Amino acid sequence: MTTDFANPLRSLVVAGLVAGAAVLTAQDPPPEAPLFKAESDLVVLHVNVFDGRSDAVATLPQEAFSVTEDNKTQTITFFSSEDVPVAVGLVLDNSSSMLTRRHMVLAGTRAFGSSSHPDDELFTIIFNEKVRHGLSERVPFTQNHQMLQASVHRFEPGGMTAIHDAVIAGLEHLEEASHQKRVLVVLSDGEDNASQHSDDDMIERASRSDALIYTVSTADLITNVGRPGLLKKLAKVSGGVYYSPDTEAEVVEAFEEIAGNIRRGYSLGYVPTNATHDGRFRRVKVQVRAPGLKNLKVSARDGYLAPRHTADH
Questions:
Q1: What angle do CA 165, 166, 167 make, to 5 degrees?
Q2: How far, in Å, CA of 42 to CA of 36, rounded?
Q3: Helix ranges (DSSP H) in 239-293
Q4: Which listed site, 37, 38, 44, 273, has its alpha carbon 20 to 30 Å from 228?
Q5: What residue ranges do the domains of the chain occupy?
């Protein structure tokens, strides 16, 4: 199994304007969950650090991290390395191209459910040419692993593929979650022949989200079926990681690793020194230096679009 780390790094503006801060402070989060507060724009980066063996490094202090925006050093005003519950959507390909890989989907879902935090908010998106929520409309999220597994069996496999639409639907559903850290795990061969949205639409939507996207490719490189390049790009723009397992055992390993790395990451926040609301792209770089640790790899976003004010109030 091969793993690609998402460098260069990316980031996203989390609504830290007064209106957004008012919404956050009006809600009481779980005691263990960090609360992001700011009276001006706040940029939040979700960062994973890996050693030379591709294992997550989980005990770094704030002083190990530095952030620059457009080559200007930023002051980190928020830092968290706590194991907190997250909101996670499993976006699972259920099209005809996945019929022979059905067992991989089921095994991966079981592995993820058993490795997740008991307070995680979980949901599934099951897609072929149609994009459907695996849970019922009355249950947008679940903490029940049996219900999560049952959702995968809800729709018969077959049909065409609309991965672009499915990823966008998953990102939109994550916006309804109460947990602040949000993740999509996409299992597919990457082919699309039925979406209303394009490749660019999906990538642009991912780049505007604060969600980490992990992609697990089932593409067959021998027969040239699938689009692993698209799945790599989707992971990269979000700061996530791309996996290409060859066997069911490696799929299980990938899902277990994702479930663990989600909570071994770090959240960093800063108020940009450039306060201009011009809607332009700001390039961000996170560096990590820790005594005694070498060959560290950092996975995060490498930029964000600044907010744009159309009128002053």
A1: 95
A2: 8
A3: 248-263
A4: 44
A5: 4-81+271-305, 87-263
User: Quick one: which of 301, 310, 300 has its CA closest to 279?
Assistant: 310
Q: Residue 20 pLDDT more than 60?
A: no
CA dihedral over 44, 307, 165, 201, signed as positive or negative:
negative
Tokens of 293: 């640790």
Q: What is the CATH number of domain 87-263?
A: 3.40.50.410
Place of tokens 């790899």: 297
Please say whether the beta carbons of 244 and 2 come within 8 A.
yes
Q: Beta strand 2-5 with 297-299: parallel, antiparallel or unpaired? A: unpaired
Degrees (nearest 5) of the Cα angle 164, 240, 122?
70
pLDDT in tens, 51-76: 877 678 888 999 999 999 999 999 99
Q: Are 284 and 302 in contact (CB under 8 A)?
A: yes
Contact by Cβ (8 Å): 46, 212: yes
The β-bridge partners of 133 are: 125
Contact 302, 10 (CB under 8 A): yes
What tokens appear for 4 in the block? 């690609």
Angle between helices 102-115 and 145-152 (to 10 degrees): 170
